[in-house]
């Protein structure tokens, strides 16, 4: 039997590569004769650079120290692909796990802008890919733009402090210091289809996950609305709400294109070809919920599997919504481990256990999923 193991990272717990290895280990315990292919993936969030590096053996890593989401320095870097494409991963510079504690109003994306500026300054860079996902902030990309030379001032001409909480005081945006994009342009890989504003937007849909109270959400929404009034562009564009609105900021100010990160990265990594002759695919993420099929990696894997007629087994830290077809079986690590803390304490153990349990759902020899 040909099995493809193609998970996303389990955010804050296990990178996609390790998750795939653990699930495959558990599977092989039960079905050692199966042909198991590991294909760790990403959707523009955490781990995107690692997946793209694996797909391009000549890629070169450029380390850098940048400003983290809470102002402390963090060690990050960007990736230069052989064709001159520079890849910047927001999660590596401005991701939620990098903050000492959630700061919904004060966290920013300055470090992402610093990485982008470093990539832009390299003479080998011909095109920029910015992977957007996993952010700690809801600043509309203001921090990143500031690091690239944009001035954001209040009514008295003072530069705004970091964070989305200050954007409601925004009075002017000066783009004169923003350098031109590289010859091949800027493309943002987004992991959601959310617009910038409204019930499904960056503040109201995602800021509570970053520690925002109801009052914080109202303030952040007002700030993003003010940013959109001054920058223009398309705040209603799918993906504009990615990474706390960073998708919107880079598109409106710099002309960046917003594309589905999951589809782009999966294509580069070879998912469609891998599923063309597969009998089963195992995919997973930290939490499967109603957002998982709206631009996230797992949702894209389900789409590709459905088109290829391949059944899916889902493995998630928590299964919080009914998985749609073609999912025929689902393993919840929290349930397997007897609680969230236990699952988080030994994620590889429980991923392997989920792989074994998934394998046992099949008939012993060449049977269909049960």
**CATH class bucket of the largest domain:** Alpha Beta
Structural domain tally: 2
Rg over CA atoms: 21 Å
What count of helical segments does DSSP give?
A: 14
- Kindly report the spatial arrangement of strands forming the biggest sheet: 3-4-5-6-9-10
Question: What this model shows, in words?
Answer:
With about 375 residues, the chain is an alpha/beta fold. The chain has helices at about 15-30, 50-55, 90-95, 110-120, 140-145, 200-205, 215-230, 240-255, 260-270, 270-275, 295-310, 335, 340-345, 345-360, and strands at about 1-5, 35-40, 60-65, 75-80, 85-90, 125-130, 150-155, 170-175, 185-190, 255-260, 280-290, 310-320, 325-330. It has a 6-stranded mixed β-sheet, sandwiched between helices. The protein has a 5-stranded parallel β-sheet with strand order 2-1-11-12-13, sandwiched between helices. Strands 7-8 form a two-stranded antiparallel sheet. Helix 9 (about 260-270) crosses helix 11.
């Amino acid at each position: 039997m040909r099995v493809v193991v193609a998970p996303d990272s389990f955010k804050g717990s296990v990178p996609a590569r390790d998750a795939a290895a653990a699930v495959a280990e558990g599977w092989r315990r039960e079905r050692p004769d199966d042909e198991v292919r590991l294909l760790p993936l990403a959707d523009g969030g955490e781990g995107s650079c690692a997946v793209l590096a694996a797909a391009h053996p000549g890629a070169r890593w450029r380390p850098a120290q940048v400003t983290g989401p809470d102002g402390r320095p963090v060690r990050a870097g960007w990736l230069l692909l052989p064709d001159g494409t520079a890849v910047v991963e927001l999660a590596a510079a401005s991701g939620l796990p990098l903050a000492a504690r959630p700061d919904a109003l004060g966290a920013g994306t300055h470090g992402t802008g610093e990485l982008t500026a470093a990539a832009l300054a390299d003479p080998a860079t011909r095109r920029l890919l910015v992977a957007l996902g996993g952010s700690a902030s809801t600043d509309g990309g203001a921090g990143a733009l500031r690091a690239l030379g944009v001035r954001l001032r209040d009514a008295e001409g003072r530069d705004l402090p970091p964070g989305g909480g200050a954007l409601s005081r925004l009075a002017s945006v000066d783009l004169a210091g923003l350098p031109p994009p590289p010859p091949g342009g800027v493309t943002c890989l987004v992991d959601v289809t959310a617009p910038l504003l409204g019930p499904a937007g960056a503040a109201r849909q995602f800021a509570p996950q970053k520690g925002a109270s109801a009052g914080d959400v109202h303030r952040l929404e007002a700030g993003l609305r003010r940013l959109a009034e001054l920058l223009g562009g398309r705040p209603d564009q799918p993906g504009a709400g990615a990474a706390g609105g960073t998708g919107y900021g880079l598109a409106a100010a710099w002309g960046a294109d917003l594309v589905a990160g999951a589809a782009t990265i999966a294509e580069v990594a070879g998912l469609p070809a891998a599923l063309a002759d597969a009998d089963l695919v195992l995919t997973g993420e930290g939490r499967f919920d109603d957002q998982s099929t709206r631009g996230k990696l797992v949702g894209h894997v389900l789409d590709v599997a459905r088109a290829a007629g391949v059944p899916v087994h889902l493995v998630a830290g928590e299964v919080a919504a009914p998985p749609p077809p073609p999912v025929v079986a689902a393993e919840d690590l929290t349930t397997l481990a007897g609680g969230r803390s236990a699952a988080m304490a030994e994620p590889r153990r429980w991923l392997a256990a989920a792989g074994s349990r998934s394998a046992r759902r099949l008939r012993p020899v060449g049977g269909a999923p049960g």
